[in-house]
Amino acid sequence: MKERRSVDEVARLMCEADRDLAKFMLGADVCGKA
Prior knowledge:
Structural class: mainly alpha
Shape: rod-shaped
Radius of gyration: 15 Å
Strand content: under 5%
Low-confidence stretches: none
Number of domains: 1
């Protein structure tokens, strides 16, 4: 159970990190282009 929970937590963190990175990259691209 602990392993499953850890995996779920890691997956959630990865998803959140991907979203944050995507927003940051998009924002940087927009700022760079603008």
